[in-house]
Amino acid sequence: MIKITDQVFHLQTNDTSYIFAVSEGLLLHHYYGAKIAFFDIDHLKVKLHGGAGTAIEYEGKKQVYTNYLPFEYSTYGTGDYREPALLFHNMTDGFYANFKYVSYELDKNIKGPLPEAKDPDDLLKIILEDDSRHLQLQLVYKVFEDTNVISRYVRLINQSTSSIYLSRMFSGQWDFEADDLEMLTFDGAWAKERQKQTHRLDGGIFINDAKCGSSSNTHNPLTILKPSTTTEDAGWAFGFNIVYSGNHKTLVETMPNNQRRLLLGMSDFAFNYCVNSNETFTTCEVVMTYTNEGLNDLSNNFHAFVNRHIIPKQFQFKNRPIVLNNWEATYFNFNEKKILELAKKAQEVGIELFVLDDGWFGKRNDDHSSLGDWDVNLQKLPNGLKGLADKINRLGLQFGLWFEPEMISENSDLYRSHPTWAVKFPNHTPSLGRNQLLLDLTNPEVVAYLKTKLSKTLSEANISYVKWDYNRNITDMYGSALSNQGEFLHRYILGLYEVIDYLTNCFPNILFEGCASGGNRFDLGMLCFFPQIWTSDDTDYVERLFIQTGTSYGYPLSTISNHVSSVPNHQTLRTTPLHSRFYLGCFGVLGYEMNLCEQDQETLKAIKSQIILYKKYRHLWQFGRFYRSYPTIFELNRMGFYVMDEKKQLGLYGFFQTLVHPYMSNDVVKINHLDDNYYVFYNIIQKLNLLDFGGLINIASPIHLKVNGKLHRFIGKVYHPNTEKERYIVHGKAFFHAGVKLNPQFMGTGFNNQVRMIGDFGSRLYVFSKMDIKHHLKRTNFKH
Ligand code: GLA
Q1: How far is the CA of 220 from the centre of ligand 1 (A)?
Q2: Nearest CA to 144 among 280, 35, 11, 238?
Q3: Measured by CB atoms within 10 angstroms of the end CB, which terminus of the chain is less buried, N or C?
């Protein structure tokens, strides 16, 4: 809801208020946080009665110091020396800007040119003008009530007769005060994406940005502000994200009196955009949320928001298929026979969709050639895409295909016929990334070509899924069709959005999965088109614990694509138990990526039961309310993830461990937000592997067994006793305040069959469900 009285604007979601007002013609920010009511806004206003010092009085007005005023959107040139949201100039009028409030409009149907969140409850457009420069600014605010999210973007309309050059234009600004403040960022690298980092903001300027042309695996655009006391389940926090897939920036400037300014949006780095007379420039959208119930609640806001307002409508809350991807099974070395054998095994274990990854096109037998030649390689697949897809369909599986459309190999027919379509600086040797160059998406000819070529290939066969990859960052930025090279990085992203908007509209039923060497472009811009993203090329259980935890702060499980791969893991060479890889993969969209034809019967049997289990709870694992236990894996060697349905009737709790240590604290499961009701909580019983006990087996064995000897191995193969069995009845409130103290883990002595054999990289899955306690009491004849 948006309430407007006497130039005071009160944007409200279910639990938050965002308030700004006009004063001296300026648009000033007054409050963002828990939902409030007010008689008038006097008590919210920053009081400026102090001495001037070096501060400047705005337009000669006594004690109106712009350097201390909380602005809704700041510019430069009237005495505010903090980082401005907008900076531009032209040759005759320089950098000065002074925008004043003019009017507002309420209209839910306004749409911007960039990808943005859909279906707001309300939309407010504020119009500001700088008369002397003949420029209009439109600040657009969207309110998403039930998810507690407010979004913003900005348009600049050049009504003057000359061009202006933007050197920065952020989408959002928030001027506020806070003493104890930290920023959480999600940083990393290839195979190590979105590692949670905490930064104290005690003074100066802190920046989280990307400069490589994509939203990056180095610094994800998601940021969180909180005091040091906030935990997963308690305390206030503000979350921010940017609906953009290119260079982004979030900046916090802290003044000595702890006045803070947050700016966020497209980065101003290597950005210089010319807005000609009568042209409009629109920024990307940014989103923000607030909670006073801890980081899990903040994540829940973002998860609900992404699921309801970012993901393409036709995929909202739609179960995602379980895929088998052939990449780690075959790499480039496959033919139709091999693929069909894999697909057959996939069908036997219950997989639903087969994805043919890199190597099916041109002459691509390694990563040195053929990107750009999106025609099937008939040597590998003599019956073409259609022939293969039909056979896979006949097995009862859907068929999916890998593409990397933004790229071009120098060794490709496309490069030979259009060398100028590659991104490279004239007369310089371009820098290669994974032996390839980028296609120049700032060139309309290239955009048109990609639309036509890809639509044609996608129409050739019954394709249900596309993995859209992007395996190098931008260098040598130069667009042969551009008149201003300062626009290259932004125009590249505009070109990309044009292509994917076109294709996803032409093929609305194809499920697109975003990928950029794993998670180099995991952002809300891509999610506006692609409902899920390949989280990381790293499928190692331990690394994934960190990656999936970090990702979960801002992105819902339905977007987090996870594959169970073989061991030793191809990224770390680590060997971890299959059930751990599976349970962790379940918290998101599950898939497999291993050579099923080379797995033994026991593994295939286990995978088959895993898939049955995942299908049983799939909707919960993809769309349930998700929580992290506290401390998380970033603080401790064990953690829990849990999901539950909206009605809090059924939930799943995954317990995950890295390295085991003796004398660890007891494992206590705490589940928050349950109802005033009883719940039954129990573990999924697994099978023990006797070989894990090594020589200790002789303590129990009536005859001495030589470790790893024939008999030992035989017994290990045929005899699999059950793990512990735990079952508790717990009141919903006690579940969080007291928790469930689990059986002890193995610690050398005192072993019995109820000890939890978790070990290094071990895990457990627990189910909790609401119970009818009266019925239960009657059944068990239990007396109070
Ligand atoms: C990237 C992707 C992988 C795989 C390869 C194929 O690295 O992230 O999943 O598709 O490309 O070349």
Answers
A1: 20
A2: 11
A3: C
* 8-state DSSP, 666: P
Q: What is the pLDDT of residue 782?
A: 47
Which of 366, 515, 570 has most ligand 1 atoms within 8 Å of CB, for mutation? 515
Give me Rg for the CA atoms of the chain: 29
* CA-closest residue to ligand 1 atom 11: 517
Q: What are the counts of helices (DSSP H) followed by strands (DSSP E) for the chain?
A: 15, 39
Question: The tokens of 233 are what?
Answer: 């389940």
- Residue 84 is given by DSSP the state P
343: exposed, middle or buried (Cβ count in 10 Å: 0-12, 13-18, 19+): buried
What value does the mean pLDDT of the chain take?
A: 96
On the CB side of 394, how many CA atoms lie within 13 Å of its CA? Answer: 7
User: What is the four-CA torsion angle of 325, 330, 336, 337, rounded to 10 degrees?
Assistant: -110
Q: Whose CA is nearest to atom 9 of ligand 1?
A: 537
Q: How far apart are CA 644 and CA 649, in angstroms?
A: 7
Residues lining ligand 1, CB < 6 A? 327, 357-358, 402, 469, 471, 515, 517-518, 534, 537
Which three-class secondary structure state does DSSP give residue 64? Answer: coil
Nearest CA to 360 out of 372, 375, 345 is that of 375
Which helix (DSSP H) or strand (DSSP E) does residue 780 occupy? Answer: helix 773-780
pLDDT for 58-117, tens place per residue?
999 888 899 999 999 999 999 999 999 999 999 888 999 999 999 999 999 999 999 999
CA 542–ligand 1 middle distance (angstroms): 20
Q: Which protein residue's CA is at the shortest distance from atom 7 of ligand 1?
A: 517
Distance, CA 467 to ligand 1 centroid (Å)? Answer: 9
Enzyme catalytic residues: 469, 537
Ligand 1: centre distance to CA 404 (Å): 9
| Cβ atoms 150, 13 nearer than 8 A | yes
User: Alpha carbon 87 to chain centroid distance?
Assistant: 30
Residue 413 class from Cβ within 10 Å (0-12 exposed, 13-18 middle, 19+ buried)? middle
Phi then psi dihedrals of residue 441, to 5 deg: -80, 5
Neighbours of 746 (CB within 10 A): 18
Residue with the smallest CA separation from ligand 1 atom 5 is: 358
Long-range contacts of 92-99 (CB under 8 A, 24+ apart): 92/162, 93/133, 96/133, 97/130, 97/133, 97/135, 98/130, 98/132, 99/73, 99/75, 99/128, 99/129, 99/130, 99/135, 99/137
With contact defined as beta carbons under 8 Å apart, do 369 and 412 qualify? yes
What residues contact residue 300 under an 8 Å CB cut-off, 6+ apart?
625, 626, 627
Instruction: Among 214, 370, 537, 562, say which to mutate for ligand 1: greatest number of ligand atoms within 8 Å of CB.
Output: 537
Report the SS3 class of residue 516.
strand
Q: Coil, helix or strand for 459? A: helix
Tell me the β-bridge partners of 173.
Answer: 263
Ligand 1 pocket test, candidate residues 192, 328, 361, 471, most atoms within 8 A of CB: 471
CA of 24 to the centre of ligand 1 (A): 56
* CB within 8 Å of 684: residues ≥ 6 apart: 613, 764, 765, 766, 767
Nearest atom in ligand 1 to the alpha carbon of residue 518 is: 8
Residue with the smallest CA separation from ligand 1 atom 8 is 517
Distance 386 CA to ligand 1 centre (A): 23
Ligand 1 atom, smallest distance to 467 CA: 10
Report the distance separating Cα 347 and Cα 357, nearest Å: 18
CA of 563 relative to ligand 1 center, distance in Å: 13
Q: What is the pLDDT of residues 650-663, one digit of tens each?
A: 999 999 999 999 88
Name residue 88's beta-bridge partners: 166
Using the 8-state DSSP alphabet, how is residue 85 labeled? S
139-167 mean pLDDT: 98
Tokens standing for residue 696: 């200790």
* Nearest residue by C-alpha to atom 2 in ligand 1: 517
